[in-house]
Predict the structure.
Amino acid sequence: MILFFTAIIAFHQDVVDATISKSMYMNWGAHQSVISGDNLQLVLDQYSGSGAQSKRAFLFGSIEMLIKLVPGNSAGTVTAYYLSSTGSKHDEIDFEFLGNVSGQPFIIHTNIYTQGNGSREQQFYPWFDPTADFHNYTIHWNPTEVVWYIDSLPIRVFRNYENEGIAYPNKQGMRTYTSLWNADNWATRGGLVKIDWKSAPFIARLSKFRARACKWDGPVSASLCAAKTLTNWWTSPVYSRLSDAKMGQLKWVRDNHMIYDYCKDTKRFNGQLPPECFKQQF
Ligand SMILES: *[C@@H]1O[C@H](CO)[C@@H](O)[C@H](O)[C@H]1NC(C)=O
Ligand SMILES: *[C@@H]1O[C@H](CO)[C@@H](O)[C@H](O)[C@H]1NC(C)=O
Ligand SMILES: *[C@@H]1O[C@H](CO)[C@@H](O)[C@H](O)[C@H]1NC(C)=O
C-alpha cells in the first residue's frame, strides 16, 4: 500500500500537491478510515468515530470541500467540517451535519466562535439530498466577512464589526478539521433518537479539499494575510460584500430553508441578543 502511494506521489508531484492525501492526515480512528489521492472516507462504528485535519493553518481565503453525507438512517451521527485555531480564546467557523432517520432531512448546523465565544448557531434544511451526491461546502473568510457557501449559494454571513467591540476572527491561524462521530446524546431530536448500530459502519465521503488561502506563519501573518495585494485575492473589494445577485440567493436560502437563527432566540439570551444581531448582517 505505502509503496503504491509513494510511487503515485513521486510521479504526479505537481498535481498531488493539492490533494487531500498531501494536505491532510487522520488524527482519529485512522485504523478504519481511508485517505487516498483526493478522497477521504470517514467511518463510525460502535468502537470509534474518525477524523482528519489539515497539516497547515490558514488565515483568510477560500476553504473548499466536497462532501457526501452518511446515507440511510444516520440518526445520532454528526459529520463536522470546520476551521479552528487552538487555545482557550480560540476562533472557529463550523459546518456540522446532524444525521436523521432514513428519508428525513439532515440539519445543516453552522456556528462561529470568536475569542472563545460561540453560541451563534444558525441551522438550515438542505434543498437537495446531501447523501446522494457530493456537494461543495466552502468557507470564504477575509478581513471584512465570513461567508458560508453550499454549491456556490451563500447561506450565512458574519461581518467584521471589530471597531464596534465585536470580536472578529482575524488574528489566529486556523486548521481545517473534519470528523464523523456519535452524538446521539443530542444530535437527533435533542437526543431522543439514538444511533441504530445495525446500520453501522456509517460512512461519510469527502473529496477535493482545497485551501486557496493565506498560509499562517505565526503572528506576523495577521498583517501579511490582510494586506491589500494582488496575491491576497481575498482582500479585493469584490469580496468585501456580496453582490446583489449573491444577496438574492442568500435571501432565498434564508427565507425558504433556515430553521433556526440565534439572533431570533430572545428567550435563550434572556432578551439580550448578542450585539451583532443589531448590525447590518449582510
Ligand atoms: C464573550 O461573551 C460573553 C457573554 O456574552 C461576554 O461577556 C464577553 O465579553 C465575550 N468576550 C469576548 C472576548 O467577546
Ligand atoms: C466550490 O465553491 C466555491 C465557492 O463558490 C468555488 O469557488 C469553487 O470553485 C467550488 N469548487 C468546486 C470543486 O466546485
Ligand atoms: C429529522 O426529520 C424530522 C422530520 O422531518 C425533523 O422534524 C427533524 O428536525 C429532523 N432533524 C433532526 C436532526 O432531528
User: Anything to note?
Assistant: The pocket of 2-acetamido-2-deoxy-beta-D-glucopyranose (ligand 1) is lined by residues 115, 117, 167 (CB under 6 Å). The chain has one domain: 13-278.
